[in-house]
Amino acid sequence: MSQLFLYYTEFCHLCDEAEALLHASGFGESYTKVEIDDDPGLLALYEIHIPVLKREDSNAELFWPFNQQQLVVFMETGR
Asked: Considering the entire predicted model, what is its pTM?
């Protein structure tokens, strides 16, 4: 399985929802959280888009909002 990054920021309720969905879908151990406020480049890229999931292998990104079915397809296919 690909390394997955969850781009987020603290106190983001949508980020909390995405993280809960990851856990409920069985991917709770499959991602690393990346705080975008710690990196000006990431903040510029994702500030109005978080939460965002990104696969390391393909650099594919899944932007919120997404549901469990979209998450599973993203994890299986990278799209």
From this structure: 0.92
